[in-house]
Amino acid sequence: MKKIIKRLSIFVLIIFLVNLVGCSNDNSGSKESNTEPTVAENNESNKENESSHYPVTVTTYNWAKEPVEITFNEAPERVVAIYQSAIETLLALDQGDKIVAASYLDDPVKEEFQESFDKIKYYKQLPTKEEILALEPDFITSWYSLFAEKVYGDISFWHERDINTYIQQNSGVKSPNTLENEYQDIINIGKIFNVEDKANNIVKEMKQQIEKAKESVQNKEKVKAIILEVGKEGQYRIYGEDSIGGDIATQVGADLVAKKSINIGMEDLINLNPDVIFTVYYGDSIDSEKAVNSIMSNPALGSISAVKNDRVNPIVLSEVYASGIRTMDGINTIIEGIYPDMKGE
After folding, report:
1. pLDDT, tens digit, for every residue of 68-98?
2. Cα separation of 117 and 94, whole Å?
3. Which of 89, 234, 312, 344 has the lowest CB atom count within 10 Å?
4. Whole-model pTM?
């Protein structure tokens, strides 16, 4: 009898162990079905995404201001970015880790980009052509002036060495300067680096801000505005309708009293009598306070409406010229200067 009981106990134990192993295998299978994609699988997915995106072709310009199509078979990995808009657009699109050299900032980069920018090799003086070649870049993005013969030479020099280029359109290539050109530059850089969705979202926000201002001032009397840069001996350089600042002011419903980008004298400024003045400052040449005081403290300009009503506003150059990602800042600065009641909207 004891032998039978012992055999039954062993049999029950075997059944229990078999079921336990079976449950363990089932749980293991369940875990595998819920496992997140592995690093290898993610990499494979990214490769498939890139292969479906490239090749991509965009239009840039040569020194003769002729359109040149360039094709990218993959995203650039070693980038040289010169001037404010070129650098900050890449940072806004999260491509700072691709920049091997940067130079020629008029102002510190925007605060939200500072951490990424601090990791980049920045040249206080423009690196020479030889220094750039030694860096072995595969892409250079900058302003038109960089590709003068005495600086880096025409884009053909670089293209012959399999180094693609992209010139910001409002940096001297196209006239008039327009918001649309800035939008297209951002979208083109997004295409080149396969971050087109992010680029489109940035542009969408800019367009929405313009439309919001248009709707808010539809039934309001137009405000007379002028955008200028204080020069020497009572001269003022005007940013007219063919400038970024002028295009913004016009699109949001202002009456731009100086429509052409020319130089005017003090008497002309008095006769135009703007309600609002935007005075441009940049770099070490002229700071924000000096730009305003040079107008507000000038007794000869005391009769101007903008001076009498303390409506002289500083605006940084990078918001009204080849503005790139700072186009949104320019939109906000101009809207708030013309329509103070819209500040913070």
Report:
1. 999 999 999 999 999 999 999 999 999 999 9
2. 11
3. 344
4. 0.84
